[in-house]
C-alpha cells in the first residue's frame, strides 16, 4: 500500500489573511499623501493592495507626482501604519483557531509577508510568535511577492518540498507567488476578488480552512501528478 502523502508545512500571509489590516495600510497611505497635499482616489486601492512597500509607494508617487523620495515616503508610510497597529490588530475570523490547530498537530507554520520586518515583529505580539517556526519579511529578500522567492526561501529553510506545502493568501499578488513556488494555494480574498484557476482553491473565509482541508489538498495535488 502506498504511503500517504503528508502536508509538510503551511505558509501564511499576514495582512488581510491573518490580520484585518489591509484597511490600515490604505488609511496610512491616504493620511501621508494628504499631508503631502494629495487626495488618493479609491481606484488606487485595488492596485496597491497586497504589494510590497516599494511597489505600492512607487506607484502612488507616479500617480500623484508628490514631491518626496521613495525612501522617505516608505519611512512615513511605515510610521503611519505602525501607529495604527499600536492600537491593536484585529485577527481575521478563523485565524486564531487555525494557528492553534496547526500548533496542536505540530504542523510547521511559517509567516511569509511582503511587510517589513519591523512591522511583522510588532504584529507577532497579537498572533503569538510561538505559533510560527519561521517568519519571512519583504525586506529580508532581494525580490518579494509576486516572485516565488519568499515561499521558496521558507521551504528551503524548513527543509520541505514546496509541492507538499500549502499557502494561504488574500491577494492575487500573493497567490501568484505561492503558485510560482509550486505550492498548493488557498485564496481567501479580502479587498479584491480572486478568480478560480487550476490548482487554486478559493474560499470565503479562514473559517472554511482546517488541517484536514489542507491535507486533502496536498493529497489531491500529489495524486494528480502521478
UniProtKB/TrEMBL annotation:
InterPro entries linked to this entry: HAD-like_sf, HAD-SF_hydro_IA, HAD_2, HAD_sf, PGP-like_dom2
Entries under Pfam families matching the protein: HAD_2 (PF13419)
SUPFAM superfamilies to which the protein is assigned, alphabetical: HAD-like
Span of the signal peptide: none
Top-level taxon of origin: Bacteria
Name of the protein in its database record: HAD family phosphatase
Amino acid at each position: 500500500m502506498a504511503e500517504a502523502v503528508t502536508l509538510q508545512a503551511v505558509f501564511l500571509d499576514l495582512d488581510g489573511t491573518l490580520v484585518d489590516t489591509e484597511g490600515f495600510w490604505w488609511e496610512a497611505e491616504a493620511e501621508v499623501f494628504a499631508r503631502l497635499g494629495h487626495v488618493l482616489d479609491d481606484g488606487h486601492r485595488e492596485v496597491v493592495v497586497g504589494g510590497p512597500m516599494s511597489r505600492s509607494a512607487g506607484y502612488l508617487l507616479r500617480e500623484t507626482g508628490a514631491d518626496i523620495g521613495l525612501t522617505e515616503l516608505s519611512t512615513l508610510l511605515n510610521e503611519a501604519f505602525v501607529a495604527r497597529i499600536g492600537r491593536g490588530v484585529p485577527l481575521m475570523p478563523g485565524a486564531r483557531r487555525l494557528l492553534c490547530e496547526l500548533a496542536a498537530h505540530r504542523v510547521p507554520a511559517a509567516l511569509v509577508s511582503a511587510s517589513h520586518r519591523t512591522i511583522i515583529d510588532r504584529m507577532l505580539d497579537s498572533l503569538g510568535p510561538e505559533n510560527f517556526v519561521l517568519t519571512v519579511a519583504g525586506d529580508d529578500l532581494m525580490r518579494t511577492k509576486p516572485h516565488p522567492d519568499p515561499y521558496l526561501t521558507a521551504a528551503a529553510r524548513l527543509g520541505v518540498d514546496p509541492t507538499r506545502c500549502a499557502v494561504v493568501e488574500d491577494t492575487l499578488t500573493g497567490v501568484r507567488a505561492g503558485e510560482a513556488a509550486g505550492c498548493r494555494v488557498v485564496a481567501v480574498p479580502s479587498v479584491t476578488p480572486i478568480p478560480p484557476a487550476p490548482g487554486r482553491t478559493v474560499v470565503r473565509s479562514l473559517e472554511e480552512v482546517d488541517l484536514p482541508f489542507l491535507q486533502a489538498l496536498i493529497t489531491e495535488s500529489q495524486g494528480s501528478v502521478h
